[in-house]
Amino acid sequence: MSNRKWNIGIAILFIVFSSLLLSFFLSTLRIKDLLQPILSSEVSQKPPYHIVLISQEIDNPYWRSIERGAKDAAFEFGMELEYTGPFRINPAEQMKLLEKAIAAKADALLVQGLSDPQYIDLINKAISYGIPVLTIDTDAPSSRRLSYVGTNNFDAGKVMGELVAEAAGNHGQIAALIGNEQAPNQQLRLAGFREVISRYPELNLVEVRSSNISRLQASGETEELLQHYPQLNVMVGLSALDAIGIAEAAERIRPKGLQIFAFDALDETLELIRSGIIHSTIVQQPYDMGNEAVSQLNDYLHGKELPVQHYTKISVQGQKPFVQENGETSP
Ligand code: BGC
């Protein structure tokens, strides 16, 4: 082959090779362009803010309302809300769930306040790990929780006292059921109630028992109380299911002239008010508690200072309807 032919061959090869190299280079640039948005969204897409709400009892209708309020607010703020709690009231399990949520590095916690020092330590531990904690429904003011969202329970107990005194005509025998011996909200309600009742010398609180937030137990305790105190003219339930249990027992035993007072506005309670079996109920706002607690967390994340307590409203619903509200926010 002549030199000229060789040169032409080499030139053709060079052109083919160069155009292949160029097209390879151009496709690499194009692939890079196509991948860019995917790569950058992967880097910037943070997982949603994960809040854990621990209830006193998972399927209790009152706590389900708190859950609904919290979930609605979480949806509004693009957060994720995990709702959990013991199957049956069990403070030790509540504590374990709190421990678990801290270990799983939840972004924030909404918990019922309990007075157990170990539980208070756990709230403080979460805070020291940088996990914001708010108490809901029941406060734990001795802990380092950021804020409390719920009823002013002492005042609610006082409202119940006034209601009972008025309906009983300032005299008679009263028995009360509380949800749980250790729950600080129940003790506060009872203290407020006692404070008012002690002003009436002819009104006597003869016994207080625990329902363990079970309507069945409330009904059983009521049966015993009615047998023990045949003169009883008032029974008060200081947690959501108590008066429903009291009413069940009263329907069986049919004591004369017994007036029943309730807490909360579960459908059954309202039905028993309509049918004249329950006299009145103190209505808390569990939906608002859940909603407000998540909205406060959102404020906190945006650098706002939270109030130490945010009291949700209460009102009275019953035979003689009147509304008394005490919703307020204290700094
Ligand atoms: C109380 C809650 C309790 C619920 C039980 C409510 O009145 O505020 O603390 O868990 O009753 O049914």
The first-to-last residue Cα distance is 99 Å
Count of all domains? 3
Give the uncertain stretches in residue-range form. 321-331
Q: Shape from CA axes?
A: elongated
What small molecules does the structure contain? beta-D-glucopyranose
The whole-angstrom Rg is: 31 Å
With helices defined by DSSP (H or I, 4 residues minimum), what is the helix count? 10
Question: What's the rounded overall pLDDT mean?
Answer: 91
Biggest β-sheet description: 7 strands, mixed
CATH topology of the largest domain: Rossmann fold
- In order across it, which strands form the biggest sheet? 2-1-3-4-5-11-13
Structural class: alpha/beta
CATH architecture of the largest domain: 3-Layer(aba) Sandwich
Strand content: 15-25%
Secondary-structure element sequence?
Answer: HEHEHEHEEHEHEHEHEHEHEEE
Q: Give me the CATH superfamily of the largest domain.
A: Response regulator
Please identify the top-level CATH class of the largest domain: Alpha Beta
* Helix percentage: 40-55%
Characterization of the model:
The protein is α/β, with parallel strands linked by helices and 331 residues long. 49% of the residues lie in helices and 18% in strands. The protein contains 10 helices and 13 strands. The chain has helices at residues 3-44, 61-76, 91-103, 117-128, 153-168, 184-197, 215-228, 242-253, 267-274, 286-301; strands spanning 50-54, 80-84, 108-111, 133-136, 147-150, 172-178, 203-210, 234-237, 259-263, 280-283, 309-311, 315-318, 328-330. The strands form 2 sheets. It has a 7-stranded mixed β-sheet, with helices on both faces. A 6-stranded mixed β-sheet has the order 7-6-8-9-10-12, sandwiched between helices. The relative contact order is 0.12. Residues 321-331 have low confidence and may be disordered. Beta-D-glucopyranose is lined by residues 56, 60, 62, 137-138, 179, 183, 185, 213, 239-241, 263-264. Beta-D-glucopyranose binds next to loops.
